[in-house]
Design brief:
Number of domains: 2
Helix content: over 70%
Structural class: mainly alpha
Number of strands: 0
InterPro entries: Brnchd-chn_aa_trnsp_AzlD
Strand content: under 5%
Protein name: AzlD domain-containing protein
Transmembrane segments: 6-25, 37-55, 75-101
Number of helices: 5
Keywords: Membrane, Transmembrane, Transmembrane helix
């Protein structure tokens, strides 16, 4: 039951913040330093979600071996990004290497 209240509380806080920003619109002006700091939030949140999944996919210790398909696929995706900078190709390379490695076709 406490999880339900926690989720409801988080939903209310999120809705309140979004509604306040939407209703106040251009009347609120953020300082340039805060605007710059807020621009890094999506990158840091995405990194905080992805890195543990890549380095410790089973929730235990870090698996820094070639047998870790998440790690191998992410290295391939980073390499594809460095070479091409094309999002769809990066996704295809990452997923292709991941599933190929997991099924034993590539590894």
């Amino acid at each position: 039951m406490s999880y339900t209240w926690m989720i409801i509380g988080m939903a209310l806080v999120t809705a309140f913040i979004k509604a306040a920003i939407f209703m106040l619109g251009d009347r609120i002006v953020f300082p340039p330093l805060l605007k710059e700091a807020l621009s890094f939030v999506p990158v840091t949140v995405l990194t905080a979600i992805i890195v543990p999944m890549v380095l410790a996919p089973h929730g235990g210790g870090m698996e820094l071996t070639w047998r870790n398909p998440q790690l191998v696929a992410s290295i391939a995706a980073v390499a594809a990004c460095a070479v091409t900078r094309r999002q769809l190709l990066i996704i295809v390379v990452g997923l292709g290497v991941f599933f190929g490695w997991q099924l034993g076709v590539l590894g």
